[in-house]
Sequence to fold (190 residues):
Amino acid sequence: MNYLLSGIATVFIVSGLFFFMVGALGLIRLPDVFSRMHATTKADTLGAGLVLFGVIIWQGVGFLAFNILLILIFIWITNPTAAHFIAKTEYLRGKSIEKDDAK
Amino acid sequence: MINVIYFAVAFLIGLAFVALYRAYKGPTAADRVVAINVITTKVVTIIVLIAAITNQNSYVNVALVYALIGFMTTIGVGKYLLKGKLN
Fold:
């Protein structure tokens, strides 16, 4: 049973690392601010969720797992909010938007 | 399992340096804000993993405070870029 829980936690943590890697790859490879935000926000939110959920499974039910769940809920609330605010800021400043979509 | 968590910490430190490259290189200010937000999420995950290795419950509270400070930093920098002032 302990080996089974460790195996499930390992699968969750490695999946989260894969999504973190996808986010970092999009951050350095994509050409625009909005594209980079599109890559990093979703991938980082899912990656952090998977890694922290893997740690919760590995630790079992307890005080540490409850605190980690609190961090997880906080990240899931604030990370899309911050990305939405940065996108709104960059759209209203309007210096890095290519204006060729009206033809 | 301990080896998996050590590997995860090392991998996340490497990805944080990749994001730091974008924060150094990025053409606009929003690129740097996005990169610092990514680094904040990675550092919170690293702190939680280290707390799980060492069985220290107080490190998790450090991670929660770090996530809060990162969110406030992002909102503050965005508002400064939008308005030119912070109030």
Chain B touches chain A at residues 1, 4-5, 8, 11-12, 15, 18-19, 21-22, 27-28, 30-31, 33-35, 37-38, 41-42, 44-45, 48-49, 51-52, 55, 57, 60-61, 63-64, 67-68, 71, 74-75, 78-79, 81-82 (CB under 8 Å).
